[in-house]
């Protein structure tokens, strides 16, 4: 269900269940968490096999859940592993992201889509909603008004609309190239920048941590003036 391949400084992680539009089961969530947590590359590129990014949770699993709260918490743990881990995680979205697939994409540091990328929180149609951290991350990314519209309507957001609201960072024919572009930068700086940009501390404390991190990087920098 999850495959990995290292390509230089990028670990390519593929949600590889195209017959189910890469929908995730509990074992798939575990495998995804392990792939990201164990990555020894500065950048992870997360993609879906076939014509979809991820349909979210496998509805066959959801229908038979004995403990829905535990399942929601399981997905939240995986999303936090993506968000809090050291590697920069780039989601390459070529096709639909739905429900939990949107939530996993929101946990990534960048979301880069092709013109075929689209997003929708379709759970509301079934009397549910995505519970892998989406109600926290979606408003942070697109603003409360857009988040309310997306969540309550279940409408499909195409690539251009997603770019305008910040749900996509870029639209390109080759999202993977963005992962390579990022990985070409200094690896230590990438890790520090991710931590600082993800820092939820108040401004004064964040500025102090920023200055400390800059000093640490400066001490290790190689200033080649030739």
Automatic annotation (TrEMBL):
A GO MF term: catalytic activity
Secretion signal, residue range per the UniProt entry: none
Protein family according to the UniProt entry: Belongs to the enoyl-CoA hydratase/isomerase family.
Record protein name field: Enoyl-CoA hydratase/carnithine racemase
Coiled-coil stretches: none
């Amino acid at each position: 269900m999850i495959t990995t391949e290292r390509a230089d400084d990028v670990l390519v992680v593929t949600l590889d269940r195209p017959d189910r539009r890469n929908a995730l089961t509990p074992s798939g969530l575990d495998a995804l968490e392990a792939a990201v947590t164990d990555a020894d590359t500065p950048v992870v590129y997360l993609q879906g096999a076939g014509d979809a990014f991820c349909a979210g949770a496998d509805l066959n699993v959801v229908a038979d859940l004995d403990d829905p709260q535990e399942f929601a918490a399981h997905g939240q743990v995986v999303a936090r592993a993506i968000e809090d881990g050291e590697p920069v995680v780039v989601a390459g979205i070529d096709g639909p992201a739905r429900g939990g697939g949107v939530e996993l994409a929101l946990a990534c540091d960048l979301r880069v889509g092709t013109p075929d990328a689209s997003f929708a929180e379709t759970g509301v149609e079934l009397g549910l909603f995505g519970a892998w951290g989406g109600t926290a991350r979606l408003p942070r990314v697109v603003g409360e008004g857009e988040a309310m519209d997306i969540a309550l309507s279940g409408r499909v957001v195409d690539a251009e609309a997603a770019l305008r609201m910040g749900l996509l960072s870029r639209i390109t024919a080759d999202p993977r190239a963005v992962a390579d572009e990022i990985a070409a930068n200094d690896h230590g700086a990438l890790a520090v920048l991710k931590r600082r940009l993800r820092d939820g501390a108040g401004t004064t404390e964040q500025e102090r941590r920023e200055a400390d991190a800059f000093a640490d990087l400066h001490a290790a920098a190689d200033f080649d003036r030739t």
